[in-house]
Amino acid sequence: MSTQSIILLAPVAIIQLTLLVVALRDLIRRREVTGGNKWIWVAVIFFAGIAGPLLYLFVGRKEE
Q: Which of these, 5, 21, 10, 6, lies nearest to 57 by C-alpha position?
């Protein structure tokens, strides 16, 4: 991988990691989530790329 590719992908990787951490932290702290099953949301957050954490943050959180 060239240096130019790394420079272009670094911001995307940082955004992905930040979204992952924020979504998991929020998921752990919440008592209830949409759908009622936190393990499904863990899988969505980890395996759906950038869309997974965004989906959880916009759809999965229940208002307390």
A: 21
Domain count, the chain: 1
| Short-list 32, 63, 61, CA closest to 45 | 61
Domain that holds residue 28: 3-60
Place of tokens 């060239």: 2
Q: Report pTM.
A: 0.83
pLDDT band at 64, cuts 50/70/90?
low
35 by DSSP, 3-state: which? coil
Q: Are 48 and 58 in contact (CB under 8 A)?
A: no
